[in-house]
């Protein structure tokens, strides 16, 4: 094929493309109205996970002795915690720093955090009580959450509710604007992203519980789970005389 023939084909294609764009932009052909709507569904879900944080801590002028004291406390606490079925155990937050007070000799503070979590609230509460009373650990925080499986099941059910609510709103909007029908355009479904409960900041040390003290009282409570549908309803088939 000659160069002249190729140029002729390119010019014809460009003209056809320009013509199609002009036709689409023709003001004589009104675009279908688009209404953006949102609908949400919310349910309270029972918290089925408990999280507790305890701290082993020691102060000593000798940093080696302070560290040895914390290591020994944590070793005992780990052995006790791992013996309780159904409780997930982890350590974190090891810190060591020097404290200097006015007119006082310098000393070292060493601390390490023990994290407990699980679905058996009574077992974790009893364990926390023993770790405070017998191993001199300090409870620094406690939290409750919905497990990923429970959250996913709740979100699946709420998604269907939110979609039905959104469809009802789209139908009402179409009727309000004088249209018989509508179709869905771009639609998004938004769910709350799951994140583990935040770890508590260190706070002032509390006095260890006495041996034989009753278990820590706990109440898991509920968490609100929400699913939101946001999308476009393209209105179609306008009724005669509705303009």
Layout of helices and strands:
Blueprint: H1 3-24, E1 34-46, E2 49-60, H2 63-82, E3 87-99, E4 107-118, H3 121-135, E5 138-145, H4 148-176, E6 179-191, E7 222-238
Keywords:
243 residues, alpha+beta, Translation Initiation Factor IF3, Alpha-Beta Plaits, 2 domains, 4-stranded antiparallel sheet, 3-stranded antiparallel sheet, 35% helix, disordered N terminus
Distance between the termini: 56 Å
In round numbers, the mean pLDDT is 83
CATH topology annotation of the largest domain: Translation Initiation Factor IF3
Q: How many discrete structural domains?
A: 2
By helix and strand content, what is the structural category? alpha+beta
Reading off the top of the CATH hierarchy, the class of the largest domain is best stated as: Alpha Beta
- Helix share of residues? 25-40%
Radius of gyration, in angstroms, nearest whole number: 32 Å
Structure summary, number of beta strands: 7
Instruction: Characterize the main sheet.
Output: 4 strands, antiparallel
Q: In CATH terms, what is the architecture of the largest domain?
A: 2-Layer Sandwich
